[in-house]
Amino acid sequence: MRAPDILASDRDRDDLLVRLHTAFAEGRLAEAELDDRIDRTLAARTHGDLADISADLPEAASPRPAGGAPARSPGRFQLAYKSGLRRTGRWRLPERQDVVVYKGTGLLDLRGAELDAQVTTLRVLAYKSDVRIVVPPGLRVEAGGTGVSSELHGAPGPDAPVVVVRGLAYKGAIEIGDRPAAG
Fold first, then answer.
1. What is the Cα–Cα distance from 174 to 130, expressed in whole angstroms?
2. CB atoms within 10 A of CB 136
3. pLDDT band at 68 (very low <50, low <70, confident <90, very high)
4. Which residues form the DUF1707 domain (predicted)?
5. Across the beta sheet with 84-87, what order do the strands follow?
6. What is the pLDDT averaged over residues 160-180?
């Protein structure tokens, strides 16, 4: 059944972009198909247009709190599509942040960031892209994923805030360090 032709918001398009990249990461979409659907999503005007693009994809998983735990805030999503993403200076980093860089570059400089939680989770997808994450001294980093590397100097204290980086780099890299990239 086709969704009503209600105008789609930027948030609606962002949600579908996350579903498309998830489907690609799961092997449901080929690279050319992903490119085509991203272009169509960014041009979509209505919910019906978005429904046509995602009709053959599984529904997005809805987070369910375990054992009556309070629901977590949805976090934030940032996308750089064939461009650059740059967060520097003073900015607020929510408990959960999803970053997708598609055929571009990304810089997340956490040295001036205000963390909303003691444990912050960054999920980063770098598709044919390079993403650099710069962390301040005293911040503990737990990194994992494919194409993720880190070079940190010094040891944070036991009560240090934690940033968990979960990344997937396809034909690119996600680099974590406590110094900006040279050059």
1. 6
2. 13
3. very low
4. 7-58
5. 84-87, 105-109, 130-134, 173-177, 148-151
6. 91
Q: How far apart are the first and last CA of the chain?
A: 53
- Measured distance CA(8)–CA(46) in Å, rounded: 5
Residues ≥6 apart with Cβ < 8 Å to 62: none
The residues, any chain, with a CB within 8 Å of residue 27's CB and separated by 6 or more, are none
Closest residue by Cα to residue 160 from 132, 143, 177, 135: 135
- Check: CB of residue 154 under 8 Å from CB of residue 109: no
Mean pLDDT of the chain: 85
pLDDT digits (tens, 9 = 90+) for 13-36: 888 888 888 888 788 888 889 889
Nearest to 102 by CA among 164, 57, 35: 35
Task: For residue 114, give every residue at least 6 positions away whose Cβ sits within 8 Å of its Cβ, in sequence order, or none.
Answer: 90, 91, 92, 93
pTM to 2 decimal places: 0.62
Dihedral angle over CA of 87, 90, 92, 98, nearest 10:
10
Residue in the structure block whose two tokens are 């992903």: 34
Per DSSP, 110 falls in state G
